[in-house]
Write a structure and sequence with these properties.
The complex is a heterotrimer.
Chain A (H helix, E strand, L loop, with lengths): L10 H32 L10 H9 L1 H28 L6 H24 L3
Helix pairs in contact in A: 1-3, 2-3, 3-4
Chain B lengths: L5 E9 L9 E9 L5 H11 L19 E4 L2 E4 L13 E4 L6 E3 L2 E2 L2 H9 L21 H8 L9 H5 L1 H5 L6 H11 L7 H8 L13 H5 L6 H21 L7
Parallel strand pairs in B: 1-5
Antiparallel strand pairs in B: 1-2, 3-4, 3-5, 6-7
Chain C lengths: L24 H32 L1 H12 L1 H24 L8 E2 L2 E2 L2 H25 L3
Antiparallel strand pairs in C: 1-2
Helix pairs in contact in C: 1-2, 1-3, 3-4
The chains are: A mainly alpha, B alpha+beta, C mainly alpha.
Chain lengths: ~120, ~250, ~140
């Protein structure tokens, strides 16, 4: 009987985050980019004052708006971190502790800043 | 009335250990008819032009899994690929990617065989049965659940297709992960929890990045990509269950 | 990834992996799919910048809005839009691979059906998001 060398993986949780972020990006990504980055700034099919300070603040202060913004920013970040980490590996870049810290540390930083900012916005 | 054969150029990646420092391309011209396979082309070279050309083959009918090669950069079975497809251009034939070359088109299957032995690829009966109880019974649906994964002919085309295996040869690989899945999906089997260690290892599903090319090249439509990626869900759920202390987790 | 321990090295010539993704169109498109993650990351950072500016007050927020109106930002978001669509396309393409065999009415559900179902949900979600955005007017 041959015994294979098996290393228990820490990947499952990261993969679940990757999957959640990827699904969210697939479902909402295109329209979110269109609304926030093209339609509202140009006033195309949506009023340019849709994201005025009072409206944006009201959205971010509401629990649902907070949850939405947190989910999008955080899950997009963790999705991207996981995929970029694996892409670096695919390109032959050594995936040691430095790469891990850069990718997943980056996502952690985004998470912390997002949550702090969403609290600082008020309720 | 005989049909006059046309001629096609076959360029083969040769490698003779002790003679060649590295693999080198060598061209041959072979006659072919509409039904001449790449394998038959290689046999014609070996018979009539260069007896030293080395390659594996056996059944000539895409069931033994011996003649896997890179044909114009794509992992294919040589007996299942026809020269007419490439005419009037040339055909480039090289040994399967990601596997060490022993000689010419012969690659080392050592790693695959070692891993095959290591994944305990047999049925562990879900419940002890006496002979008097007779055979296990399965409905057609239960058979359907694992049948496609049991179709693997161990040709290793999926290993040549998988860049993650090429980058990390410790990866158990698509074909063997599909075999693990074949047993897990068999209603007669009861060792799913034990096989979770193989699935949830770095060398298991977590080396896969869902490139999906393995399923594209598989000559038996086993769909190893489905077997591996399905088990990412299973593995992740098991991982969560273990940490949350829910029932049904392995170990 | 797998810790850097040598796999058992038997005999045989090992070909280098460098440039592997350029050797086959399938691999090239795989890399394009993977690169869409950079677009997802960039957009997350754009939104993060927005939320931070929002928390800092009206002048900061208006600064973010002004930046979003710049030609550079519009051009960037057109690229990000393409990237998101590319991500969604490849996402629903690969989604069936993560699912077990599904049977409806005794027949196996094809991967293409699952992909199309994903797209239907995506289109519905996009429309819903747009409608909600329009309804956010006073």
């Amino acid at each position: 009987m041959t015994t294979l060398r098996l290393t228990p993986s820490r990947a499952p949780l990261l993969w679940l985050l990757f999957g959640a972020g990827g699904m969210l990006a697939a479902l909402l990504g295109p329209m979110l980019v269109f609304i926030t980055g093209i339609a509202v700034p140009l006033g195309w099919t949506l009023p340019p004052d849709l994201l005025s300070y009072p409206r944006a603040l009201a959205f971010a202060q509401h629990w649902a708006g907070k949850a939405f913004l947190a989910a999008v920013i955080v899950l997009f970040a963790w999705h991207a971190a996981h995929r970029i980490f694996h892409s670096l590996h695919d390109l032959g870049i050594p995936t040691g502790i430095v790469t891990k810290v850069a990718c997943y540390g980056g996502a952690t930083l985004v998470t912390v800043v997002a949550l702090v900012a969403l609290v600082a916005v008020g309720f | 009335m005989t049909v006059e054969p046309r001629h096609i150029e076959i360029e083969v990646l040769r490698y003779r250990p002790g003679t060649d420092a590295e693999p080198v391309w060598q061209s041959f011209r072979v006659p072919f008819l509409d039904d001449t396979s790449v394998l038959e082309g290689l046999q014609a070279i070996k018979d009539d032009q260069d007896g030293s050309l080395s390659f594996r083959w056996s059944c000539r009918m895409a069931i033994c899994g011996s003649c896997g090669m890179m044909i114009d950069g794509v992992p294919r079975l040589a007996c299942h690929t026809f020269l007419r497809e490439f005419f009037p251009g040339k055909v480039r034939v090289a040994p399967l990617d990601h596997l060490p070359i022993e000689r010419d088109l012969v690659v080392s299957a050592e790693d695959f065989v070692r891993k095959l032995e290591g994944i305990t690829p047999w049925l562990v009966p879900r419940e002890a049965r006496t002979l008097a109880q007779g055979e296990h019974l399965q409905t057609p649906r239960q058979l359907e659940q694992f049948r496609q994964y049991a179709g693997c002919i161990n040709c290793m085309l999926c290993y040549a297709a998988c860049p993650q295996y090429g980058l990390d040869p410790e990866f158990i690989g698509p074909g063997l992960m599909a075999l693990i899945h074949r047993y897990n999906e068999d209603s007669r089997d009861g060792a799913r929890a034990e096989r979770m260690e193989l699935i949830n290892a770095e060398q298991g599903v977590w080396s896969c990045t869902a490139v999906g090319y393995c399923s594209v090249v598989c000559p038996k439509h086993v769909d190893p990509a489905n077997a591996v990626n399905q088990n990412k869900v299973n593995g992740a759920l098991d991982w969560v269950k273990q940490r949350v202390g829910l029932k049904g987790a392995s170990k | 990834m797998i810790p850097p321990v040598e796999a058992p090295r038997g005999r045989g010539y090992r070909r280098p992996m460098a440039g592997w993704w350029r050797r086959n169109p399938y691999f090239f498109w795989y890399m394009v799919r993977e690169v869409t993650a950079v677009g997802v990351a960039v957009y997350a950072l754009v939104l993060l910048a927005g939320v931070v500016c929002l928390a800092r007050g009206e002048p900061a927020w208006n600064g973010w809005l002004a930046a979003m109106r710049s030609p550079v930002s519009i051009a960037l978001h057109l690229l990000l839009l393409a990237g998101m669509v590319c991500h969604a396309w490849s996402w629903f393409d690969i989604m069936p691979k993560t699912m077990p065999m599904l049977f409806v009415g005794g027949k196996r559900v094809e991967a293409s059906t699952i992909t199309r179902a994903g797209w239907v949900v995506a289109v519905v979600a996009a429309i819903a998001l747009y409608v909600v955005a329009r309804m956010l007017r006073p």
